[in-house]
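Operator note (shift B, R.M.): manual run for Neurocalcin homolog requested after the automated queue skipped it. Running by hand, logging everything below so the morning shift can see what happened. Input copied straight from the record, untouched. If output looks odd, do not overwrite the archive copy; leave it for review.
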Amino acid sequence: MGKAVSVLRSGGKERKTKRLFRRTVSQLERITNFSKTEIKQWHKLFLKDCPSGQLTEEHFVSFYVGSFQSGDSRRKAELATQIFRTFDRDGSGTIDFREFMCGMNVLMRGSITERLKWAFYMYDLDGSGSISTNELLDVLKLMYEIRYPEYGLEELEKTEPQLQMLAERIFQELDEDGNGVLQMKEFVEGIRMKPYLLSLDVEGGRLLIFE
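Run finished. Output pasted below as returned.
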């Protein structure tokens, strides 16, 4: 009898899980630019790496740091933590499949406004709701190290003054009230009005929005 009850409970739990998954797929179809087939494919990949259905910050940071040979591991971990935070919408410390897909949607198929909002959260290192020149410069330096892995420490140090000038130029263009920090509205609307800022870089690439 006990075994039969256990089987019934297990079957009920499985049906509930399937219903929840179908509901999640339906929601993601509405709020992202992925098809049902694509969402299911992503789900298989997600569960392969995260059988529990929850991606931890430690797992995410470890994978990210290991993906790039160049740059200081501590610094790369800082950037990875920021990326994780932009995906972790509810601040739970883990990323579920829905959060993961919403984040990937912005990066892969998001509009310019969506990607700019995401970039803003990336640059807001302390989560204050605004970006300082130092925060912008810090992330630009990290992105530069990752984008140009062939450069050694000496070459990276030579480019720092240029990146400093880039950060200051962006602030001059976007800081409308002159208070020394950028708010979300200033950042997003400013770049939409001045799209040439997206092409600013010391090597001809694009660092302001992550590609």
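Quick read of the result: The domain at 113-211 is CATH 1.10.238.10 (Recoverin; domain 1). The chain has two domains: 12-109, 113-211.
Leaving this for review. - R.M.
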